[in-house]
């Protein structure tokens, strides 16, 4: 119930830029960093979500500041926007690394990415940041997010739903199912746009959605509960198709998400899994 409430609250306050900083290249870079530093699975999703929320807030803050400066100095909007882009670009990798560091500290396994490790990576990428700048970057992320960094990730939703399914006597092989869910969750981050484009086309039964339909669909793309049930449903379909209908019914009764919506998400996900493997 708490997760469902948290999800609904997040969706009700969704900024229109949501998802802008979750593009596959960014997610892949974060996943590779987490792999390199031997972080657990939860840290990678946490880092992506931290970066996304931080960047949206930072862009809003810098944009507001730039507009105020433009007014006071009578600069053109173009030069103001160019300056904004430069500010974002110049610190993006630093902020990304800070988000991975924070995620490592919030991880249950305490495999923390220390300052020296993070600096070593940044220097290998030809960035000349100092230890002080790295510490300040981490503080900037924390302050921008008002220290609200312990948010739930899609994996949190998946694991909780798997637990509830187990309690509901929906007996499934726990370890293989969890592993499959994680693999599909990775895939959903790395193929985010095509998966949701397919889902939108299926939902509206049209391959050319209007701007309004795309805008309204943003809440679907950011719905962690829908993503979680879709991931579990698809995982069960792959591993144990005979139990799929039963699991979908259970997921529907647990979350209130319709069986049709679960089916549509699984279809979109499977379409791209099969497409990527062919």
TrEMBL record:
Protein name stated in the entry: CNTD1 protein
InterPro entries: Cyclin-like_sf (IPR036915)
Gene3D superfamilies reported in the protein's UniProt record: Cyclin-like
Biological process according to GO: reciprocal meiotic recombination
GO cellular component terms, A-Z: site of double-strand break
């Amino acid at each position: 119930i708490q997760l469902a409430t948290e999800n609904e609250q997040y969706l009700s306050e969704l900024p229109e830029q949501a998802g802008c900083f979750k593009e596959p290249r960014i997610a892949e870079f974060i996943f590779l960093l987490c792999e390199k530093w031997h972080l657990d699975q939860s840290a990678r999703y946490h880092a992506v979500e931290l970066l996304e929320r931080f960047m949206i807030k930072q862009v809003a803050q810098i944009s507001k500041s730039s507009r105020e400066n433009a007014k006071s100095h009578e600069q053109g909007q173009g030069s103001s926007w160019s300056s904004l882009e430069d500010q974002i670009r110049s610190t993006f990798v630093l902020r990304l690394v800070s988000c991975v560091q924070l995620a490592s500290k919030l991880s249950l396994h305490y495999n923390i990415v220390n300052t020296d490790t993070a600096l070593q990576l940044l220097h290998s990428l030809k960035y000349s940041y100092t230890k002080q700048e790295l510490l300040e970057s981490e503080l900037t992320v924390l302050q921008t997010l008002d220290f609200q960094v312990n948010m739930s990730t899609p994996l949190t939703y998946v694991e909780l739903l798997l637990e509830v399914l187990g309690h509901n006597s929906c007996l499934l092989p726990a370890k293989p199912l969890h592993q499959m869910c994680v693999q599909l969750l990775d895939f959903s981050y790395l193929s985010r746009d095509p998966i949701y484009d397919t889902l939108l086309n299926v939902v509206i039964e049209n391959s050319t959605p209007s701007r309004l339909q795309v805008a309204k669909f943003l809440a679907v793309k950011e719905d962690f509960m829908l993503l979680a049930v879709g991931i579990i449903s698809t995982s069960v379909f792959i591993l144990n198709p005979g139990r799929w209908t039963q699991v979908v019914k259970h997921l529907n009764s647990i979350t209130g998400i319709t069986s049709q919506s679960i089916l549509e998400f699984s279809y979109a996900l499977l379409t791209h899994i099969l497409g990527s493997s062919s």
